């Protein structure tokens, strides 16, 4: 039923001239789902208050509640034929509803409150529907969705993940929000978080790491205390971009975390020298954006200055870990070998302050649409690195949109990581043997025969001239025979 609803929603959005891409579809679906979820939760909270003999004060005022404007019903429970539509509906949403919801941003002081999250969701998002008739059709479809049961949320979360994945494949910017879920699951299985620990992603995008970690940790036999810890104290995320923040918040809600601790902020604006014990976490899981640049004043927040966003994030993540804390971070493979000062100093700091015990070398095509190769760094804070175990992931096929990474591809890596054996695809590097001046950690499989060195340009030209001379001589012989 829900899959049919999402397919119908796609058709409605494709017919609206204000919605041009998968990014638009994901954004508009998100704010509609958020308001429907909020309405379902408010009804649930009101019922709980009534059973306990308490008065319930709604978070959303009556004129702006879902049942008033989005899905009004008659006395017989059927949709009201006089519900807002056309220009009246667009006018209400743009001129009244959105300004009202955006006002929560100024009213809420605590970032962990529902009011704050409402304000953040609508602070920078706009209604992109041009046709009030299309919007009415979309509202009617969303109203059929039910957030009341865990089974409903599970089905909705799968459909929402598919939407995020499609958005990620649709364009370069969307791709920032999507990390292949099989890779995330493998990273989590290696790090092995447990309930009672805190998990953090400072570049959480669509919250894929936090959602998968929640799926890994939740069990049917959890005590009430463990369940409360899982819901409210375990997961922490930060995201700079508005659309990604909304996607992450909604994704976590659909996976079953009712009040996600995700903040809409630029993580790199924090000075890493100011962190105290209460700011630190047990586990960090992340795929920070790379290739971007930050302003000079932002770089002042870090001991090692760099215009590479990923290098600033890595410094942030190292300092966000408690002593003994564990991390799994995706980064460009060139980080292991670049000779610029920032790269060398950052590798030196990582090796000196953390135990970089594992490097997973990912094949080309792991991230669809990305032109760079990546590695995953697994490390623990508090002890220097002595040895690094490398694993070269080779799925035996070319990865792409129609042939993506899957869980089976990573099964051997997860199985071998704990014992860290030598195999044709894995090996151990003794840090004492690397060049102390460069701290080069390049992926160099000792079990693979070294390729012959490439010829110099001068040698290539000389070889070409020699072949030309041979060809000329042969042609002269042929001409003599004629």
UniProtKB/TrEMBL annotation:
Residue intervals of the DNA methylase adenine-specific domain: 152-450
InterPro entries per record: D12N6_MeTrfase_N (IPR022749), DNA_Adenine_Mtase (IPR051537), DNA_methylase_A-5 (IPR003356), DNA_methylase_N6_adenine_CS (IPR002052), SAM-dependent_MTases_sf (IPR029063), T1MK-like_N_sf (IPR038333)
Catalytic activity: a 2'-deoxyadenosine in DNA + S-adenosyl-L-methionine = an N(6)-methyl-2'-deoxyadenosine in DNA + S-adenosyl-L-homocysteine + H(+)
A Pfam family recorded for this sequence: N6_Mtase
Start and end residues of each N6 adenine-specific DNA methyltransferase N-terminal domain: 13-139
Top EC category: transferase
A molecular-function term among this protein's GO annotations: DNA binding
Signal peptide: none
Family recorded in the similarity comment: Belongs to the N(4)/N(6)-methyltransferase family.
Protein name, UniProt field: site-specific DNA-methyltransferase (adenine-specific)
Organism: Stenotrophomonas daejeonensis
């Amino acid at each position: 039923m829900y899959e049919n609803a999402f397919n119908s929603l796609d058709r409605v959005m494709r017919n609206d001239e204000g919605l041009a891409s998968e990014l638009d579809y994901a954004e508009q679906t998100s704010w509609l789902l958020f308001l429907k979820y909020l309405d379902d939760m408010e009804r649930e909270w009101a019922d709980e208050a009534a059973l306990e003999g308490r008065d319930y004060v709604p978070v959303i005022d009556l004129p702006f509640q879902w049942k008033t404007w989005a899905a009004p019903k008659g006395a017989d429970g059927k949709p009201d034929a006089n519900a807002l539509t056309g220009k009246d509906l667009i006018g209400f949403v743009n001129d009244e509803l959105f300004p009202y919801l955006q006002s929560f941003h100024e009213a809420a002081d605590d970032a962990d409150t529902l009011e704050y999250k409402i304000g953040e969701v609508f602070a920078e998002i706009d209604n992109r529907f041009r046709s009030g008739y299309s919007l009415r059709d979309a509202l009617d479809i969303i109203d059929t969705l039910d957030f009341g049961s865990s089974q409903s949320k599970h089905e909705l979360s799968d459909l929402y993940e598919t939407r995020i994945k499609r958005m990620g494949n649709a364009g370069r910017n969307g791709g920032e929000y999507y990390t292949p879920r099989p890779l995330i699951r493998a990273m989590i299985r290696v790090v092995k978080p447990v309930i009672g620990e805190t998990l953090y992603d400072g570049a959480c995008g669509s919250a894929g790491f936090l959602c998968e970690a929640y799926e890994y940790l939740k069990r049917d036999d959890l005590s009430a205390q463990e369940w409360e810890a899982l819901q409210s104290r375990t997961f922490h995320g930060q995201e700079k971009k508005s659309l990604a923040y909304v996607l992450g918040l909604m994704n976590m809600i659909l996976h079953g975390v009712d009040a996600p601790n995700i903040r809409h902020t630029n993580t790199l604006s924090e000075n890493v020298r100011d962190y105290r014990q209460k700011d630190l976490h047990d586990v960090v899981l992340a795929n920070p954006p790379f290739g971007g640049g930050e302003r000079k004043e932002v770089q002042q927040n870090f001991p090692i200055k760099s215009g590479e966003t990923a290098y600033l994030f890595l410094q942030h993540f190292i300092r966000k870990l408690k002593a003994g804390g564990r991390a799994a971070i995706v980064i460009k493979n060139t980080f292991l070998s670049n000779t610029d000062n920032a790269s060398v100093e950052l590798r030196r700091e990582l090796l000196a302050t953390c135990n970089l015990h594992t490097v997973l070398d990912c094949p080309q095509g792991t991230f669809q649409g990305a032109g760079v190769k990546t590695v995953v760094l697994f490390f623990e804070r508090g002890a220097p690195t002595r040895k690094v175990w490398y694993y070269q992931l080779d799925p035996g096929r070319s990865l792409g949109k129609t042939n993506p990474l899957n869980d089976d591809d990573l099964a051997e890596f997860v199985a071998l990581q704990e014992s860290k054996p030598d195999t044709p695809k894995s090996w151990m590097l003794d840090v004492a043997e690397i060049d102390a001046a460069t701290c080069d950690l390049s992926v160099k499989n000792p079990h693979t025969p070294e390729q012959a060195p490439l010829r110099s340009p001068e040698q290539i030209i000389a070889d070409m001239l020699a072949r030309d001379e041979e060809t000329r001589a042969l042609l002269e012989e042929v001409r003599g025979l004629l």
